[in-house]
Amino acid sequence: MAEAENKKNEQTAAETAADTAEETAADTAAEAAEEVTEEAGSQAEGTSDAEEPAEEKTEEKAPAGGKEKALQDKITVLEDKVRRQMAEFDNFRKRTSKEKEQMFSMGEKNVIEKMLPVVDNFERGLAAVSEEEKGGALASGMEMIYKQLMKQLEDLGVKPIEAVGKEFDPNFHNAVMQVESDEYESGFIAQEFQKGYMYHDTVVRHSMVGVVQ
């Protein structure tokens, strides 16, 4: 009986030791698994933390590059717009200046055309003065006014067209009749009925002439 009880006690102690060892092993395995899990989690978290700045940096760089390109494109568009506006303004300035010169020139030409009949009347009046009256006050006054008038026209760029003795040129002369002449050849001007005038390079009035036939 005592021996059987001892065996039973030994068996119970062995079973208890086995259970304790099994529980200890299980606890150790659980702790090891927990440590591995925690380490893996830490590594994963470290990797995530390490990658986040790179992604953020990439995200920051991309918008900055896009902004710079958009700004450069806008500057290019504005520069092109300014260049076109400057070119248009320069063309407008040149066109306006040319139109202004033309209007001013036309205005002067119109005034000169209206003054020419006055010049003609002065010349007719001076031609009609007799030899006895040429030294008088009236004739001298007319002569002075005529010279002053012609000087003003000359300063404006007006000059008479040469006619008598010159070959007929339809650009400057207006032939109103054909005449006979022993002094000039055919096609040359022998008489001038009304004096013609030039304003710079433009004919204000053609000379009315008689051309030798």
Description:
- The chain is of the alpha+beta class.
- The protein folds into 2 domains: 62-156, Hemagglutinin Ectodomain, Chain B (Alpha-Beta Complex), CATH 3.90.20; 159-213, Nucleotide Exchange Factor Grpe, Chain A, domain 2 (Roll), CATH 2.30.22.
- 68% of the residues lie in helices and 14% in strands.
- The chain contains 2 helices and 6 strands; from the N terminus they run H-H-E-E-E-E-E-E.
- The chain has helices at 2-127, 137-155, and strands at 158-160, 173-179, 189-194, 197-199, 202-205, 207-212.
- Strands 1-4-5 form a 3-stranded antiparallel β-sheet.
- A hairpin with a 2-residue loop joins strand 4 and strand 5.
- Helix 1 runs antiparallel to helix 2 (137-155).
- It is elongated, with a radius of gyration of 59 Å.
- Residues 1-11 and 39-60 have low confidence and may be disordered.
Short structural description:
The chain has helices at residues 2-127, 137-155; strands at residues 158-160, 173-179, 189-194, 197-199, 202-205, 207-212.
What's the domain count? 2
Query: Using only CA atoms, what is the Rg?
Result: 59 Å
Shape: elongated
Overall number of strands: 6
If classified by CATH, what would the architecture of the largest domain be?
A: Alpha-Beta Complex
Mean of residue pLDDT values:
77
Order of helices and strands: HHEEEEEE
The structural class is alpha+beta
The main sheet comes to: 3 strands, antiparallel
As a percent range, the share of helical residues equals 55-70%
Number of helices: 2
- Looking at the structure, the CATH topology of the largest domain is Hemagglutinin Ectodomain, Chain B
Strand order of the largest sheet: 1-4-5
pLDDT < 50 stretches:
1-11, 39-60
**Distance linking N and C termini:** 182 Å
CATH class category name of the largest domain: Alpha Beta
Beta-strand percentage range? 5-15%
